Amino acid sequence: MFTNKNQEEVEKPREHCAVFGVTCDDETYSISRFLYLGLISQQHRGQESTGISVLKTGGSIVTYKDKGLVSKVLDDHVLSNIWGNVGIGHNRYATTGSQEFGSPDYMQPLHFKNNEIEFSLAFNGTIPNYAEIKQDLEDSGRIFVTNTDTEVVAQLIATIALKTKSWPEILKTASTSLDGSYSLLILNAQGAIYAIRDPLGFKPLCLGELHTEQRNYYIVSSESCGIDVLGGKLIRDVEPGEVVHLSHRKGLHSEIMVKSDRTALCQFEFVYFARPDSVVDGVSVAQVRRQLGINLAKKDPLLNDPKFKENAIVVPVPDSGRSVAVGYAYEANLPYVEGLMKNRYVWRTFIMPGQKRREAAVKEKLNPIKAFVEGKNVIILDDSIVRGTTTTKIINLIREAGAISVNVRISCPPVIRPCYMGIDFPTTSELIAGNFKERYGDDNYIEEIRKQIGADSLRYQTIEDLIAAIGKKRNQLCLACLTGEYPLKSVNKIIEMERAISSDRV
Ligand code: SF4
Q: What are the residues facing 55 on neighbouring strands?
């Protein structure tokens, strides 16, 4: 969703949310604890607030949400009292510092109720053309209480529902107006869950089932790890442009709302966002990361130097560099060493204000193990470089701990452009690769980044190798932050407007 981002604070790209839903055919049973498990397994997709909306068949929707982690918000008391056999949940990432962050109006699920319609909505994504839709809705008399695109989606649905009571029809009509990246769940007052994925399928969304002797469940989750944690079986992914109706009585029903000649699954799901044990659109995240490491090792000229290799170790930046480092170490036939200790109790260094404070925070979070790195040629594996601040600090720490050389290998190709599809990235000038590419040109910018971060050598994944590791076609993936080619019309319109404004200023 769109929020007041404080871009200075972003050091790593941030996912915005996770969604999760369950239906159970036993109307005397409560699925609230299942929602808890599904959300906690996807805590990595959003840590600022969490919430659930639950309904007992024949009853009304009850919603509970608050700031904080799943384990804090959904305590025993809440789970015992929010009771029903159908429900949806949501983890939200939003930038701390946005003024509205603490307001429940900005947390999800968004429980919408007026004289005509009641439903609850859990939304993961961004609608770049939301301002236009909002204007049209306001012109027709709708009153908004937030400035989020989530509320725009809810108000759009409520407006369309004035003309038809058919939910598939409502959602089909809504999807023709929404030009964005989204996976969303709707729980309606009749106890049906609708799972919808945007026509290009930017965000993951998958379906699962669980059958026990007593009960049958259908599950929908941003990531398949949410299905695994319940002991469920992954059925399939929701297709781009598809709406799936999960009914606790009648099973699954599907309809394709919009067909597109391409898809645009976010490549960063494989590089960084998704949990390694998840399977996204039929592809194992861990296997992709391992292959990215193998690719880097296969093309690494340093590995042709026997003297360098004698003392070399492969060190992941925890946690996201691990699977990549395993692949690299395997292919290079070098020791994999956990040479950086991560303090799990310090999190969100990216929210710390000021460059000095952020640099100090890296030390609080990561500490090199001197006994492992001293006297070694260290090859560090990380997923991406955004601003370069954290990478510079890590290199310094490892050097100070006595490494002979520090060599950086990045599993993602250079990130040169911001994301307009819901991922929190800095602007082009704040992205080290974007900025340096413009300043030094295609042939020189990687070497200039190497000098800037203080590495002995630096190599990135190529876009072709990334695509091959994911095993999809180029036109099935979003690569916009790597290429500058955006797959949404509304984004291209925004970029044109931004260009026009900046050329006016010049
Ligand atoms: S621009 Fe990058 S981060 Fe954004 S959706 Fe596309 S691939 Fe993902």
A: 86
DSSP track, 302-345: GGG-HHHHHTEEEEE-TTTTHHHHHHHHHHHT--B---EEE-TT
The DSSP letter of residue 234 is E
Residue 215: strand, helix, or coil: coil
Query: pLDDT digits over 199-224, tens only?
Result: 999 999 999 999 999 999 999 999 99
Cβ contacts of 217 within 8 Å, gap of 6 or more: 22, 23, 24, 25, 31, 34, 209, 210, 211, 230, 232
Q: Whose CA is nearest to atom 5 of ligand 1?
A: 266
Residue to probe by mutation, ligand 1, list 93, 202, 266, most atoms within 8 Å of CB: 266
| Cα-based distances in Å from 227 to 41, 47, 98, 268, 343 | 9, 20, 32, 21, 28
- Which residues of the chain are modeled with pLDDT < 50? 1-10, 95-97, 99, 348-353
pTM score: 0.92
What amino acid occupies position 124?
Answer: N
Cβ–ligand 1 distance for 421 under 6 Å, the answer yes
Kindly give the distance from the C-alpha atom of residue 31 to the centroid of ligand 1, in angstroms, as a whole number: 33
User: Looking at ligand 1, which residue's alpha carbon is closest to its atom 4?
Assistant: 419
Tokens encoding 72: 């804090």
Please indicate whether residue 227, judged by its CB atom, sits closer than 6 Å to ligand 1. Answer: no
Helix (H, G, I), strand (E, B) or coil at 178: coil
Q: Is 491 in the pocket of ligand 1 (CB under 6 A)?
A: no
Domains (range + CATH), the chain: 16-264 (3.60.20.10), 283-486 (3.40.50.2020)
Asked whether the beta carbons of 218 and 250 are under 8 A apart, the reply is: no
Residue 249, helix vs strand vs coil: coil
Ligand 1 lined by 412 (C-beta under 6 Å) = no
Q: How far is CA 281 from the centre of its chain?
A: 15
User: pLDDT (tens digit, 9 = 90+) per residue, 105-148?
Assistant: 889 999 999 988 999 999 999 998 989 999 999 999 999 988 88
- Indicate if ligand 1 lies below 6 Å from the C-beta of 481: yes
Alpha-carbon span 205 to 231, nearest angstrom: 18
Index of the ligand 1 atom closest to the CA of residue 268:
8
